[in-house]
Amino acid sequence: MEIVEGFGIGVVVILGALLILFVRRALVTRSGGIIRLSVRVSTMLDGRGWSPGFGRFAGDELRWYRMFSFAIRPKRVLSRKGLAVERRRLPEGQERLSMPADWVILRCTSHHAPVEIAMARSTVTGFLSWLEAAPPGAVSPRMASQDWPAA
């Protein structure tokens, strides 16, 4: 009887953990603007260290959440102000086994440290547009200094 009880408790714990993961994902993705995104969290081994997840655009920030995590807060936040794409490349070696074939790896520099992110080729255009866009309400210093004719 103890084996059946132990098995039942194990099943309940696993189902509870899965429920928490789905509720967490629903809370994070409720406002849209979600993309599939992998971030390289470790560079100790060449081609390894990629962690799958999803990114959410929130104003001037790209918030990255790990796919298999119970945390409601993002694991990493990339600010648009200090982020620049240094180069782009296709997956090489071991990376080809850990991500889809149509993904592109972007090496970015930020205020804190360099970061490598991987996303689908079709997503890169939207990411670059977001990165180059001015935040709502902001005026370019070049445009603000010009005298515009009255309408």
Automatic annotation (TrEMBL):
What domain of life?
Bacteria
Pfam families linked: DUF2550 (PF10739)
Task: List the transmembrane segments.
Answer: 6-27
InterPro entries from the entry? Answer: DUF2550 (IPR019675)
| Keywords recorded for this protein, A-Z | Membrane, Transmembrane, Transmembrane helix
Protein name according to UniProt: DUF2550 domain-containing protein
